[in-house]
Amino acid sequence: MTQTVSPAAAALLAFAAAVAAPAGTPADPIVDSKMTDVEAFDGLDPACPKDLRDRQTVVAVTYWGFDGKLHRGQLVADKELEQDVLAVFEVARAEKFPIRSVVPVSHPRFRKNGKWDDDLSMAANNTSAFNYRAVTGGTTLSKHALGRAIDVNPLINPYVKGKLTLPPGATYDPAARGALTADHPVTKAFLARGWVWGGNWTSLKDYQHFEKPVK
């Protein structure tokens, strides 16, 4: 026999569930990003080829924040890399590796003059992937433009080349929470799946940066 639950009882059950699973728990992660596909690609550089745009997908990921709570965000990346992304974030969760936020660069707060702005995303210590742009200090397309690169906690894992550090004012401290090192499980998880880490480069160090070459 089917039992009918009154509106009052349903409200009480919902309240009890909320109390039992406060925000930031596995049952109810704090939502940092819930963009639709349209929103995630809004404002994309019109120079981006359609076939490249069509290769990108919005990947929902769960991670520990610096507040010690679970958060839910989104990365835009090449469809081929979705399982890699999910596997690495699973390792990050298991290690309780803190990540500030994971929000597509298309978000309004990361735009300058209407365009996606990597500098604003980095300054916010935001972790991101797809962004149709050139490499830092150059004119050739970045692996981010292909959706085949991810920058993790940029303010803690800066780009360093000579006297240039990006984001400005950032300092790399391998002992800091959220920092990446060669022997960190998150770094190893990327490398095990065929990714390259910018912290291993010799001409410069890009500690935030992971990319996966096209086979």
Q: Tell me about the largest β-sheet.
A: 3 strands, mixed
The helix content, as a percent range, equals: 10-25%
Number of helices: 6
Unreliable sequence segments: none
Radius of gyration, rounded? 19 Å
Strand-and-helix sequence, N→C? HEHHEEHEEEHEEEEHEEE
**What's the domain count?**
1
Question: Per DSSP, what share of the residues sits in E-state strands of 2 or more residues?
Answer: 15-25%
Give the helix/strand class.
Answer: alpha+beta
E-strand count: 13
Strand order of the largest sheet: 1-3-2
- Estimate the mean pLDDT confidence: 92
Coarse morphology = globular
End-to-end C-alpha gap: 58 Å
Protein described:
This protein is α+β, with helices and mostly antiparallel strands and 215 residues long. The chain has one domain. It is 24% helix and 20% strand. The chain is built from six helices and 13 strands. It has a three-stranded mixed sheet with strand order 1-3-2. A three-stranded antiparallel sheet has the order 8-13-11, covered by helices on one side. The longest helix is centred in the first third of the chain and has 14 residues, at 7-20. It is globular. The termini are far apart.
